[in-house]
Each structure stands twice: as C-alpha cells, then as structure tokens.
Amino acid sequence: xxxxxxxxxxxxxxxxxxxxxxxxxxxxxxxxxxxxxxxxxxxxxxxxxxxxxxxxxxxxxxxxxxxxxxxxxxxxxxxxxxxxxxxxxxxxxxxxxxxxxxxxxxxxxxxxxxxxxxxxxxxxxxxxxxxxxxxxxxxxxxxxxxxxxxxxxxxxxxxxxxxxxxxxxxxxxxxxxxxxxxxxxxxxxxxxxxxxxxxxxxxxxxxxxxxxxxxxxxxxxxxxxxxxxxxxxxxxxxxxxxxxxxxxxxxxxxxxxxxxxxxxxxxxxxxxxxxxxxxxxxxxxxxxxxxxxxxxxxxxxxxxxxxxxxxxxxxxxxxxxxxxxxxxxxxxxxxxxxxxxxxxxxxxxxxxxxxxxxxxxxxxxxxxxxxxxxxxxxxxxxxxxxxxxxxxx
Amino acid sequence: xxxxxxxxxxxxxxxxxxxxxxxxxxxxxxxxxxxxxxxxxxxxxxxxxxxxxxxxxxxxxxxxxxxxxxxxxxxxxxxxxxxxxxxxxxxxxxxxxxxxxxxxxxxxxxxxxxxxxxxxxxxxxxxxxxxxxxxxxxxxxxxxxxxxxxxxxxxxxxxxxxxxxxxxxxxxxxxxxxxxxxxxxxxxxxxxxxxxxxxxxxxxxxxxxxxxxxxxxxxxxxxxxxxxxxxxxxxxxxxxxxxxxxxxxxxxxxxxxxxxxxxxxxxxxxxxxxxxxxxxxxxxxxxxxxxxxxxxxxxxxxxxxxxxxxxxxxxxxxxxxxxxxxxxxxxxxxxxxxxxxxxxxxxxxxxxxxxxxxxxxxxxxxxxxxxxxxxxxxxxxxxxxxxxxxxxx
Lengths: 393, 393
Description:
Chain A is α/β, with parallel strands linked by helices. Chain A has ten helices and 16 strands.
C-alpha cells in the first residue's frame, strides 16, 4: 500500500475496510469478490475516475492486496488515485471496449484463472448498474467450474456506519449544500430561466465554500416547477419562472465523493392553502419520524411514525421516505442498503447517515423539505442547517 | 400520440423511429422489445428524467403504441415528457425499489404476461448499464416460456444517421462547447484552482448561448493536469494550476440530450518540444484520418489512416480513436455502436455523427485535440469551430 497526496483516508482506514469486507466474505463462503460498483471500488482502494462507463472491478481475495482491473487507458488513473502498487493494477486491451465480438469480462476470466480462482467461490454484484447481464453471462461461460455467488451490496453494507473522517467529508458537503440553497433563494425570481438557475446551482456546488471544494454529485440537480413537480425526477429546460410558481430543488453538496443531499421548495409569492397544509403536515410528520432516529430503534420506526402522523393530517405517502447516504457515483447518491420504509428492520446505530426524504408529489405540484442526518449516541444531528420550511419569496 | 410543448421532435419523426425499430425487430424475430437504455427510451418516446437509477423500460410491440413502465413516482414524468397516452404509462409499487426480497423485473414479467407475451420472443439489452444480471435472472425465472433474445444496441443502431432536427440540436450543443472552450482559455492562469475552473465550465455549459440552453452532459468535465493527464478519465480536485502545467479538457456541450463533445489542451507557458511534436503528429494524423470521413468509406478507414500517419511521426496509439455520438444519458455520451478502430467495417453514410478522438496519453501527461463531425454528401463538416491546436497561454 502506498500513501500519497490524493488518498482521502489513511492506509489504516483502508486496511480496516478490507478486514470488514473479508469478514463478510467469510460469512458467505466467498473466496474472491469481484467489485464493480464504483463507490465500492473507491471505498476499498481509493480509486476515483469517470471510467465506470467501461467494465472495471476490484478483485478482492483473502490473502493478498486488492487488484484493480480495468481498461488499459484507465490503469494510470488507478496509479494516480489508489494506494495499490503497480503490480496490482491490470489493464485490458482496448479492443474489448464496446465490442460486439468479445466482452471485457472474457478477459477478466483469464485473469481470475491465472490467479487460480477458476474453481473458486466468486462473489459478484448481481444487482448493479455496472454488472450487466452480458457481463454475468461471460463469467458463466468462461469460468464453468467456478461458483458465482450473489454478493450484491455486500461491500455497501460495510459502509453504513461512517468513520470520523467520512463524517468530516459529509460535513463539508453539508456546508456546500447550505450555500447552494442560500444562493438559490437569493437569485430566484419571476423571469429567471430554469437553465440559468441550474447553471448557478452547478457553479455554487462545484466552487464550494472555502476549503470545502465541490465534487460532482451522483444525481444532478432536479428543479421541477408546478406540474413538472408532480414527477419525482425531472431536471430543467429553458422555461422562465412566473409569479406563483412553486419549485422544488433536490440537490446535494458533494466533497471527495461524499454527499449531503437536501431538498427545499420555494414558492414565488404566497402559496395556495393546500401547500401550506402540506408544509405543516410534512414538518410535523418529519419531526415525528425523527423522534425515532436514535440507536436502538429500527429503520422502519422512523418511516412508520412519519407515515402515521402524515395520515392524521390527511396526506398519504406510499413510497420510501429515505435511505442511507455517503460515498457515491452516478446514477444514484443513495448507498442502496437501508431504506426508511415499512419492513426495513435494520437496527439504527451511531454514525449511520440518512437522507430523510419526506417528499410529497401531489396532483398539481410537489413539496420537498428533507434532511440529511447523522445518528449520535442518543439521537441525531442535522448535517446541514437550512430553514425547515416551504420558503416563500 | 399526444403532441405537447416539451416534445423535442414531431410526432411524425417519432413514428418513423418506431417503424425503423420494428423493422429491425423483424430481422431478429422479436415480438416485443424491452428497452432499458435511457437514451433509447427517450429517442423512441420523448421520455426524459433522471429516473434511470431505478428499473424502467419502454415495451415496444409491433401492433400497438409503446408502453412506458417504471417506478410509480416517475410515471407523472412520462406524462409530462413523452407523447404516450396515460393508459400506456405503467408504474410499479415502490416496495420493489432497491429491495432484497423482490425485483422490479418481477413486476415487469407480470405486465408482459398480461400483455399475453409470456411465450413471446422478447428482446432485451443484455449489455447495458441499466440491465443488470439480476434483472435478467428475474425475467428468466418469471417468464420461463418466453424466448429472451439479445437485442443489445438494436435501437442504438437505428440512431446512427441523424435527422435534420437532431442535427439542429447537435449544432446547438456545438455553439455551447465553443463557448465553453473560449471561456476556459479566457480565465485559465497559474493559481486558479481546478474546482474553480470546473465550476466555470459547468456554469458556461448549462447557461449555454442565446437560445441554445445547456442540458447536462452524459460525461462530466474531465480536466486532468500533468501526470494526472496520463490517465484518460480523471475529473478534478482543489489543486492549483502552476506555470508550465499542461491540462486537457474533455468536455461536451449538450442541448436537449444531444451532445457535441470536443477536447482541447492548454499549456500555461511554452510547452516542451515533446508536446509540440505530439501536437504536430496528432494534427497531421487527424487530417489524414478525416480525408476518409466521407460516405462510401468504412469506419476503420478513418482510424487506419490516422494510426498509420501517427506512426510515421513516431507516436503510437492502440486504443479506439472515436465513436458515434448523439443523444445520451450518463455514464457515456457515446452511442455504443460504431467505433473508429481497426475492424469496424461499417460503411460511412451522410448525417452520421462522430467524435473523432485522436487523444494521446503519454508517460508524463496527455494531449487531446478532438473534433465532432457530421458526414456530408462527399465529406464532413466540423460541428464546432475551435482552433485546432495545443493552445498556449
């Protein structure tokens, strides 16, 4: 392992992550893990680059350092950003890229065979953006004697409790998202075009605040207005805001790949009574939910308390109301482990981090007032400090 | 089909796309196509949203309008952005999202069964970011009598020749990337931090130029300096530029999801002779390649002419030197069809569009001077007009 300036964590912290992950491999009888999720690759090795659009992975065994495997032209990126020695960085030839006659995973099978893993128990992330059906077929075909085991989210689950250094980065992201929301409120007005507003959001988020420089968020800004806000995930166009418009801003600050998502909603002028009622309901229900945000409670406790209180106000929500957050790459800033919803009986622990997401998508618009929190010894701390309200300007 | 303000193309153009795609389905004996690639979904139906982090698709049959299927909270987004009638927009319940006890594709199997397709020949995009190994397994398990056929890139291949309206959008994207490069050159100087530069690039790209408003590019800005530029896909941090630094900017303008990628390299001060030699080699070899950019030639003709000329200058490149471009979503702005490399014998045709990408990643830095082009009746047109040089400031 090589310490160098670009590493975001100490070698000890990376070693600890490897230990945890290997222990989880043992419980599933996995000899070797093929880690394709870019956030898992980065969490285990430090690797960081926009190279996930071609196949790549970290090969993790029990008895030797991880191996980075990817496209040849990206191997120097692993040298630059990870702690791996160059003999643990393997590039495949470029003719494998987006070819219809061969698949990069054909090459990986050769690598695994050279490592004498052709009869091993190999964990793969079956449910991942970066492990396609064709990737799996290639491994099945070229490693017929191996046992391919579903290891979806095995590494993600090791990430749910954050280290102090991770929390430092998430607090940096919180400073950034605070500034983003303050800037939005400052400049929003009738006549402003949505793409101009989006440009300002990007600028503020990437510039960051003092030493808290902005990295790119894993979900780009969502800022739908009016009827567009009946949908959860629309981005922007060049339409101009008008008096009376209600817009939600689902955005995140990001620092060294760590996220602090936070949504707020702004009304240009006095909002209709329905939205004031919705605001009251969401805030009250959110606080009811957050009363359960403490070690010893279950994830679903937060959600159920929220749903129940919301219903008393005459509003309904049947979709999940939050998820674990931390390090991520596009297309999702969630950790894809814990969900705040009925049935998730994960016990809450100190230093878990969530985006509590009590969004309402109504029949004529949307309302998002959300919080990112870290659990403390006996409660929670809001990561960012932005007024909890349907903001009016 | 519903015409509305957000549609970027006429209903006739969408109808034509459906016709082309259905004809391609016939050649593969496909009754029903399950289209998960977000750019294919958008190209076929107009649908646009950052919802691809949960499973979704367009179901395309021969004898009825396409059906959008996705997460319930995203269904209103399909109403807002696609031409589909509401009875062709199907949402699945939220408990399927990122669950470890059920998979959204279990629900899709139910939908396909209701459509009496449980014994049909169903095309799936086996090699796609948005078709995981687990998604395929779910369909196999729940549709045992169906014939699942690999339809990877079937829709993408229908997109390789651009319509006039698509070219209008790509030219808008070209105006944007021209402005981005002009702005970078204006502000770059020793002392500027990389994230500040990235913030300016985002601002310029999203704000756009006049009516050419900026959409988000499918690859975010890459701007590695010095040794970091030995790698192909690093993004940025907060390090400050110094006199003598050489930085490449791999960026794209984007308008209504259509891209014009363009890379340039800037040296702060006189570059070393090696880079001047590399510049000369790349430009000469690029022009040799582009002499073959005309209908009737093959894709590999461009690449081979480039490689051969480059070698005469004493430089080598063994990775692909370009690809088809157009509409895209993260994580890749390429169309994942044509590659400019040896062995790609696709015949060039008018209105194909490429990012010709003769990048060199050397042992102490990188040089990228690229062009996005559209093929004309007897040659090519550069989409963007930015000085073809290793720029010095």
